Amino acid sequence: MKKIVVPVDFSEQSEFALKVAASLAKKHKSEILVLHMLELNQAMATSSEGFHPEQTVFLIKLAEKRFKEFLNKPYLNGVEITPIIKHFKVFSEVNDVAKKNNADMIVMGSHGTDGLKEIFVGSNAERVVRNADIPVLVIKKEHTDFKVEKFLFASGFKEESIEAFRKAKQFAAMLSAELKLVYINTPGDDFLSTSDIQERISKFLKKAGVDTKVNIYNDYSVEKGILNYGDKIGADIIGISTHGRKGLSHFFMGSIGEDIANHSNVPVVTFRI
Questions:
Q1: Of 116, 181, 178, 119, which Cα lies nearest the Cα of 147?
Q2: In this predicted model, what pLDDT tens digit does every residue of 111-130 receive, in sequence order?
Q3: Boundaries of each UspA domain copy (predicted)?
Q4: What is the pTM of this model?
Q5: Residue 245: C-alpha distances to residues 112, 164, 266 (Å)
Q6: What residue ranges do the domains of the chain occupy?
Q7: Cα separation, 40 vs 115, whole angstroms
């Protein structure tokens, strides 16, 4: 892992994310690209009608000063930091910055429990995840030394998720973590018999070219199953796949990822399908 992008808005949650990124950077000798968006609309930044240019310059300088102070933290000592400032609040730019700099991961903070309206940078975490081609690690609490021993990856084990599974496997290896796989079986229309589940998983693993154990856990919903199984095994992080620009039908737009992101006591990482 060579480069990590961390969007910050000076909140406590964004500092939690920065601390985790710093911990990872020290272990993997990575560079952190700290991204701040000034949230000036284009009219304010460019128009001469109704705005005085000196006011815009003042606001930009003030934000830049605050950004510099925010990065003056002891836990960043010894870490290569590249500050990046964007003047507009365009969240596709997070992925653009990541692609331009060949970044490996985005780490961002979240309030979590109050719903996605309170997730980092307003309600725009969904947009960041939707546009992100690389894994997005969502942090809600402070971690003085970010360690991952058990990484739980939940999947429906359909062929479309093979690439996300491979990314999760690489992510676990990078963190030197034990990868735990789980399929959540629920009642109702999505219920599968044990033999049907095993057949699906067997085909998936064969196509993925791996031979590993997948646990089957029964619960009333996928969300509860992932969280309950995570608690049961003491998972340090939960991974899920996302559909990105296809609509995020399984993350942030649907109930599965939303509930997990809001109610999980551990960090959540997404992998683009």
A1: 178
A2: 755 444 444 443 456 667 77
A3: 1-140, 149-271
A4: 0.85
A5: 22, 15, 26
A6: 1-144, 147-273
A7: 26
